[in-house]
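Input C-alpha cells:
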C-alpha cells in the first residue's frame, strides 16, 4: 500500500530534478524538429535514458526517430508512458516577450505549439522519479517509456500498436498540456479523442505526349507553340477545390468533425512549357468513428480519380495514419485525478507574471494585474469537465478532438491527463492573442516549468499507486476487460488499423546543412525585397 512517506519522497525527487527537467525541456524546445524528422530530439532521449539505466531500442517499429526504453526492477506490473517531441512547421518563435523567430532561423521553421517538448519532459520526470523510488525501496515492476514521433500527423502510435509494442503493458499514462477548455487540470472521462486518418495523394503526369491536343511535330512533349497536358499541379489544385466544395456532401451536417489539407509538393519547379510531373496533397480527417473515417476517404478517392482523369495524370494513395478512437477507463481516470488533487494545480510565480505582463504591453495592451487564464491554476474534476464538454456536442457523438494516445487504450487501461499550461487571460476588447504568444510562453522557463513539475509529480504518484496498490490496478484491468469484452482479442476489442509501412520517405519539412550554413530550414526566409513588396501591395 502506498504510504504518505513514499508520496513525499517521490515529490521531493521531482523537485530535486526540476533544474534538470527545465534544462532538458529547453533543449527539446529549441531543437523544434517536425514530424518524422526529430533526429536530435530522439537522440537526446535515447542517450539520456541509457544514462539512467534503461535498455533502449532505437528506431522501434521501423521509425528512425522512435524508440522503446525498458527498465525492470523484478517481477511486477509493466507500466507505460511516452514522450512526444515533434514541432509544427511555420511556428518558429523565440523564448521572448516579442514576436521573432529563434536566432538564425526562418519564421517558417518549426516551433512547439502544444508544446510537445514539455509534454515529453513532464512525463519523463514522473518515470525517472518512480524509477529512483523503486531502486531505493526495492519496489518491483517494469517501466516502458516510448519515443513517439510525428504526433501532429498521428504517426507513430498506430505503428507501435500494430507491431506489438504495447501488448505487454498492464497500464499506460498519457499526459498532454491543456489545449482547450474544459480539459485543463483534469482527466478525460467518457468522451475521448476520436479516429483519425491521414492520406497522401500523389498525382503524376508521366505521359504528357499522349495528351489529346499534343503537337506531334515537336521533338519534345510540349512546345511553346502547342498546348500541353494539364499535369500534376492542375490535379492538385482541382483536388483542393473539389474536396473543399464537396466536404458537406461527404458526411451529414451537424457532426463535429474536420478535414484539412496540406500541399507537400507542387510541380517540382518544372519549366513553364512542360506540365508539372508530380504533385502531392495530404488530407487529415478527424472524426468520431472508424466508419466515418473510411467513408470520408472513399469520397476523397472518388475526387482524386476524377481529377486525375481531367488533368491527364495517374494517382496513387499513400497512408500516413489510421488511428483508432479512444477507450475510456474510469478507474484509472479517478486514480490519476486523486493524485492531481494531492499535487495541486500549477502555480505561476511573480517572474512568470512579469513576463506575461511584458507580452501584453508589447501587444499594445494595458498589462493585467492577473495576466494568466484563471483555469490554468484551478482543478476541474473529470465528471465536471465531461459535462461541460458534452454541451457543445450532439448527444450521439461518442468521441471528440484528435490525438493518437488512443492507440494505447486498446492494449491496456489508459488515462488521459491534462495539466494547465501558461495561457493569457481573455482580452477586454474581445480580440484574440496572436499564435506566437502561446508558442513563446512554452519556451519561457518560469512560465512552463510549473506545468512540467505538476505533470511529473502526478504521473509519478500514479505509477507509484499502480505498483503499490494491487486493487487499483485490478480495478483498471477489470474495467478494460469489461469494455473490450475480453481484453485484447475480445468481442468488443478494436484491432490495430495500421496496414502500411512508416511513411518516412515523403518530403516532410526538415533542417538541412548546405554551403550557406548549418541547419537552414528548407523553406527560405523572406528577403527584404519580398517583404517590401508585400507591404506595398
Amino acid at each position: 500500500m502506498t504510504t504518505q512517506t513514499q508520496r513525499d519522497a517521490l515529490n521531493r525527487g521531482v523537485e530535486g530534478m526540476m533544474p534538470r527537467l527545465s534544462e532538458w525541456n529547453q533543449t527539446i524546445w529549441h531543437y523544434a524538429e517536425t514530424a518524422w524528422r526529430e533526429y536530435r530530439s530522439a537522440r537526446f532521449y535515447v542517450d539520456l535514458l541509457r544514462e539512467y539505466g534503461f535498455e533502449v531500442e532505437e528506431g522501434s517499429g521501423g521509425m528512425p526517430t522512435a524508440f522503446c526504453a525498458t527498465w525492470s526492477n523484478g517481477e511486477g506490473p509493466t507500466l507505460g508512458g511516452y514522450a512526444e517531441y515533434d514541432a509544427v512547421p511555420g511556428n518558429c518563435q523565440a523564448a521572448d516577450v516579442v514576436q521573432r523567430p529563434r536566432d538564425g532561423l526562418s519564421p517558417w521553421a518549426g516551433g512547439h505549439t502544444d508544446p510537445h517538448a514539455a509534454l515529453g519532459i513532464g512525463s519523463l520526470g514522473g518515470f525517472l522519479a518512480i524509477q529512483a523510488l523503486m531502486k531505493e525501496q526495492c519496489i518491483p515492476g517494469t517501466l516502458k517509456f516510448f519515443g513517439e514521433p510525428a504526433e501532429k500527423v498521428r504517426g507513430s502510435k498506430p505503428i507501435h500498436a500494430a507491431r506489438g509494442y504495447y501488448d505487454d503493458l498492464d497500464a499506460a499514462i498519457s499526459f498532454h498540456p491543456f489545449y482547450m477548455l474544459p480539459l485543463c487540470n483534469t482527466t478525460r472521462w467518457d468522451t475521448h479523442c476520436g479516429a483519425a486518418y491521414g492520406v497522401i495523394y500523389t498525382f503524376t503526369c508521366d505521359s504528357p505526349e499522349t495528351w489529346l491536343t499534343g503537337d506531334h511535330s515537336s521533338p519534345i512533349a510540349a512546345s511553346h507553340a502547342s498546348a500541353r497536358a494539364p499535369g500534376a499541379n492542375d490535379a492538385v489544385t482541382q483536388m483542393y477545390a473539389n474536396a473543399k466544395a464537396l466536404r458537406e456532401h461527404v458526411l451529414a451536417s451537424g457532426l463535429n468533425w474536420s478535414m484539412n489539407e496540406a500541399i507537400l509538393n507542387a510541380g517540382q519547379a518544372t519549366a513553364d512549357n512542360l506540365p508539372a510531373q508530380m504533385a502531392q496533397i495530404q488530407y487529415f480527417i478527424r472524426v468520431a468513428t472508424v466508419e466515418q473515417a473510411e467513408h470520408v476517404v472513399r469520397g476523397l478517392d472518388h475526387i482524386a480519380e476524377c481529377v486525375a482523369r481531367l488533368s491527364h495524370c495517374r494517382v496513387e494513395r499513400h497512408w500516413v495514419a489510421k488511428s483508432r478512437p479512444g477507450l475510456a477507463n474510469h478507474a484509472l481516470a479517478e486514480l490519476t485525478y486523486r493524485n492531481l488533487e494531492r499535487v495541486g494545480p500549477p502555480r505561476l510565480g511573480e517572474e512568470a507574471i512579469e513576463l506575461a505582463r511584458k507580452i501584453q504591453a508589447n501587444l499594445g495592451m494595458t498589462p493585467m494585474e492577473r495576466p494568466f487564464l484563471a483555469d490554468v491554476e484551478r482543478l476541474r474534476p473529470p465528471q465536471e469537465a465531461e459535462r461541460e464538454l458534452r454541451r457543445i456536442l450532439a448527444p450521439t457523438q461518442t468521441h471528440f478532438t484528435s490525438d493518437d494516445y488512443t492507440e494505447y487504450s486498446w492494449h491496456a487501461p489508459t488515462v488521459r491527463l491534462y495539466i494547465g499550461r501558461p495561457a493569457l487571460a481573455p482580452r477586454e476588447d474581445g480580440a484574440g492573442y496572436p499564435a506566437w504568444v502561446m508558442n513563446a510562453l512554452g519556451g519561457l522557463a518560469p512560465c512552463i516549468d510549473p506545468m512540467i513539475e505538476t505533470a511529473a509529480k502526478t504521473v509519478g504518484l500514479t505509477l507509484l499507486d499502480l505498483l503499490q496498490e494491487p486493487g487499483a490496478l485490478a480495478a483498471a484491468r477489470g474495467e478494460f476487460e469489461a469494455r473490450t469484452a475480453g481484453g485484447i482479442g475480445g468481442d468488443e476489442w478494436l484491432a490495430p488499423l495500421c496496414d502500411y509501412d512508416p511513411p518516412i520517405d515523403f518530403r516532410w519539412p526538415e533542417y538541412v546543412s548546405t554551403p550557406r550554413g548549418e541547419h537552414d530550414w528548407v523553406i527560405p526566409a523572406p528577403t527584404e525585397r519580398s517583404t517590401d513588396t508585400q507591404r506595398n501591395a
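The longest strand covers residues 195-204. The chain is about 35% helix and 15% strand.
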